[in-house]
Amino acid sequence: AAPGSGPGLGHGSGPPATERVLFPPTFSVSEIKNKQRRHFMFLRWKQQQRKEKLALKKKRRKEREALGDKAPPKAIPKTIENQRVYDETTVDPNDEEVAFDEATDEFAPYFNRQTVPKILITTSDRPRGRTVRFCEQLATVIPNSHVYYRRGLALKRIIPQCIARDFTDLIVINEDRKIPNGLVLSHLPDGPTAHFRMSSVRLRKEIKRKGKEPTEHAPEVILNNFTTRLGHSIGRMFAALFPHDPQFIGRQVATFHNQRDYIFFRFHRYIFKSEKKVGIQELGPRFTLKLRSLQKGTFDSKFGEYEWIHKRREMDTSRRKFHL
Q1: In this structure, are residues 290 and 196 in contact, taking their beta carbons and an 8 Å threshold?
Q2: Which keywords does the record carry (predicted)?
Q3: Which long-range contacts (CB under 8 A, 24 or more apart) does 108-116 make?
């Protein structure tokens, strides 16, 4: 069709263009050959779809108001989370086997209050400024953590030195093209070791409406949606980084939220506006983790025994199946 012809696109007298556009049921934008016209018609089609959706929503709301208490319950929308494929390794809090494993695993000394967390944070060789600042800010989030730089030292030599100095965990921040892109978390002295892909890193100065600098108070820790046996282990690893008794006077909270196997980290401060209203300020930094592997023992790239490895072609066959 020539430009300017077709339904709703002619010039001259007639109703406004927004009223003239009436797409037939079999209308397909992809059949339009002209690129500009195709893009224009697609925008019009999307606008019409939005109007129809809004009109239907208003109609349903009026029907519910007219019915009052007799209105049927609202339908629960289908999402990827609530359509999740059931995982046979989902943890039951009352399971005796799970309780026994928790009492005998590598984190039992921490949860029995026999050890106090002491964290070493280091980087890949020759870290750039952004990675250095991220490590310094991460050290203000995790109490009793110390930042040291690698200077060419291999991790296999760092780990014995950490154990000799009573460090309970080792965090390694890797980078690529000056951007932090990986995190290795190793629990000492017996493991396990988790390797994460890191993305969406935001430093404090890059966060809008951020609060003041965090204080030295020990924060609360919130772990969300770590429901499987694997997720339970990862959640216990994160919990073991922080002291047992949070100092509530600091009003700070560190959150690890698992959603679709992506772990979102946020650091906030509570703001009590009144007796009933509570607001939050994000303090930063923020980042997102994706588990790539879980290894028994401490870091060993050659001879390490892996409990779990993310294999995309085998494991990501369904969008509704999650592992954490």
Answers
A1: yes
A2: Ribosome biogenesis, rRNA processing
A3: 110/168, 110/239, 110/240, 111/236, 111/239, 111/240, 113/244, 115/168, 116/144, 116/168, 116/243
Tokens representing 320 are: 């509704």
Question: What angle separates helix 96-104 from helix 229-239, to the nearest 10 degrees?
Answer: 40
Report how far residue 292's alpha carbon sits from residue 169's, in angstroms, rounded to the nearest whole number. 19
* Token output for 239: 């919990």
**Which DSSP symbol is given to 313?**
H
Which helix (DSSP H) or strand (DSSP E) does residue 129 occupy?
A: helix 129-141
DSSP run (H or E) holding 269: strand 262-272
What residues form DSSP beta bridges with 28?
Answer: none
Q: How is 184-223 classified by DSSP, letter by letter?
A: EEEETTT--EEEEEEEEEE-GGGSTT--SPP-SSPPEEEE
Residue 74, both tokens: 């609202």
What distances in angstroms separate CA 143 from CA 51, 161, 242, one per listed residue?
A: 52, 20, 7
pLDDT average, residue stretch 201-227: 91
Residue 75 has what DSSP assignment? P
Which tokens is 260 given? 């679709």
In the block, tokens 């989902």 appear at 90
Query: pLDDT tens, 150-178?
Result: 888 888 889 999 999 999 999 999 998 88
pTM of the model: 0.77
Q: Which two tokens stand for residue 299?
A: 């870091």
As a whole number, mean pLDDT of residues 213-220 equals 93
**Residue with structure tokens 């999307």?**
46
Region of 137 on the Ramachandran plot (φ > 0 left; ψ -120 to 50 alpha; else beta): alpha
Q: Is the pLDDT of residue 3 over 50?
A: no
Spatial separation of the C-alpha atoms in residues 99 and 96, rounded to whole Å: 5
Rounded CA separation 60/63 (Å): 5
H or E element in which residue 266 lies: strand 262-272
**Residue range 28-47, pLDDT digits in tens:** 788 888 889 889 988 998 99
